[in-house]
Amino acid sequence: MKTNQELKNAALAALKGKWTSSVVATLVLFACMMVTMILTVMVEGIADPTLESESISVWSIIILYGFLFLIYYPLAMVGYYNAFKDVLKNDDGKVVSNMFAGTFKTYPRALGLSLLYMIFVFLWALLLYIPGIIKALAYMMSPYILKDHPELSPNQALNLSIKMMKGHKFDLFCLMLSFLGWSFLAIFTLGIGYLWLAPYMSTTLAAFYQDVKAEYEGRQPAAA
Questions:
Q1: pTM score, two decimals?
Q2: What is the pLDDT of residues 95-133, one digit of tens each?
Q3: In sequence order, what are the residues at sequence separation of 6 or more whose Cβ sits closer than 8 angstroms to the Cβ of residue 116?
Q4: Cβ contacts of residue 198 below 8 Å, gap of 6+?
Q5: For residue 141, how many C-alpha atoms fall within 13 Å in the half-sphere facing its CB?
Q6: Spatial separation of the C-alpha atoms in residues 35 and 32, rounded to whole Å
């Protein structure tokens, strides 16, 4: 396995000359989240004032999670992640178009993966936060696997991610933790810094996937 610094250096090298498209893609993703929040506020604002507040809240939740599961999570988990894998692996700077193409070409499977991911992590988190975090780390390679292996179902992609991440969950945790300082700096810029930090982290994660994938495939017995 490469060191965290080697993975980060690979990400920075891949992003050179592609920062503008990367920031635009991140801005589009953030805009989708903002649309979700605006829709939720609008539902509360136009709801019949004679309805009980509990009813208004229920409809707000339906709108919120409906948009998240139907649009945001497939776009973020599959499209966004794999767009930066294309940056790293293929030197492809068309981040925005690749983000949408990567989502809608595999939309039913991307939607299924998003739903299963959130449900499984939520169920494990009910046991306590730590099991939920561990499972989230174990599933982190599934968006890439779903794109690389169109023959696999969402559940099979999650299971293969678990196998790939065996012995590497702590490595990924430390890698994510290494961005903590940058995250604090991004907060001090009122979140604007995340437009650059998110592509940096996503490309580094793609480099981690490439490393883990190569190691996993190297452990598999050669076909007869």
A1: 0.87
A2: 999 999 888 888 999 999 998 998 888 888 887 778 889
A3: 154, 155, 158
A4: 26, 29
A5: 26
A6: 5
Torsion of CA 69, 70, 74, 79, to 10 degrees: -150
Q: Give the separation between CA 208 and CA 172, rounded to whole angstroms.
A: 8
Residue ranges in 91-128 assigned as alpha helix (H)? 95-104, 107-125
Q: Return the sign of the alpha-carbon dihedral for residues 93, 177, 131, 170.
A: positive
- Domain residues of the chain, as ranges? 4-217
Which residues make Cβ contacts (< 8 Å) with residue 110, sequence separation at least 6? 74, 77, 78, 79, 103, 146
Q: DSSP class of residue 223?
A: P
> Which pLDDT tens digit goes with each residue over 175-210?
999 999 999 999 999 889 999 999 999 999 999 999
Q: Please give the Cα distance from 82 to 174 (Å, whole number).
A: 22
In the three-class reduction of DSSP (H, G, I as helix; E, B as strand; rest coil), residue 160 is classed as helix
59 CB-near residues (< 8 Å, 6+ apart): 43, 47
Tokens of 69: 């599961």
Q: CA 139 to CA 72: how far, in whole Å?
A: 18
